[in-house]
Amino acid sequence: MNTLTHAEPRTRRPHRIRRTAVAALALAALTALTSCTPETVAPADERARANEAGGDGKPGARVKLAKGEVDCAVAKCIALTFDGGPGKDTPALLDLLKREEVPATFFLLGGKHIEKYPETVRRIAKEGHEVANHTWNHPRLTEIEPDEIREELTRTQKEIARLTGSEPTLMRPPQGRTDDTVSEISKELGLSQVLWSTTAKDYATNDSELITERTLDQAGRDGVILLHDIYKGTVPAVPGIIDALKKDGYTFVTVPQLMAPAKPVPGAIYRP
What we know:
By secondary structure, the chain is an alpha/beta fold. The chain is 43% helix and 12% strand.
């Protein structure tokens, strides 16, 4: 199985060179991911199928959404997601998201995170963000036994439910590594898998300006942005990301909102 390429920290270079390098890194990551995962479904395709089915299959038909819901068949939507938290900087991130009225999806890690910041977990849920599962110990799920996969996911499910009153319906496999066994267990536990289309590789740099630039270079309609709220340079980069994308006409939504009126299917793997 191939490994997703991790970019090393780099010195600052001219804008054109950095843009080319980022594009190459993104392509390499997506190629590696494609080669080691079962079939994936784009959230936009899932949404389109649901609209067609609910609209008697007529071209351009759309299911009427509830009042206040964003129709991403019309709006230029993008989903902001955070992995590996909560962390010490997550409350500041939540303050920002609240001011900007931006919903996000948080794929929470159990060990040393959920157990260390339970009040932050409660706040994430209370403020309307999507709370999702990122395992307990962050193992490569494709390299452990089925019972261990089940334990990693179940333990996190139960602790999130204890804190928020609801079990997640989404999970993100660490490093995007999944296979048929992971999918089967996810289906058993009622979890859909969510990958991404945009990665700033913020685990490899504390340069907030570079994180912002990488994110904006890769952002696209119906995309899913992957960031980590546990690294030093990430949360300071988020204001610039939100401001630039709003100016470019994007509407921020959670992952489930991105595919509405469709509902995430347990066991399915979603990737824009």
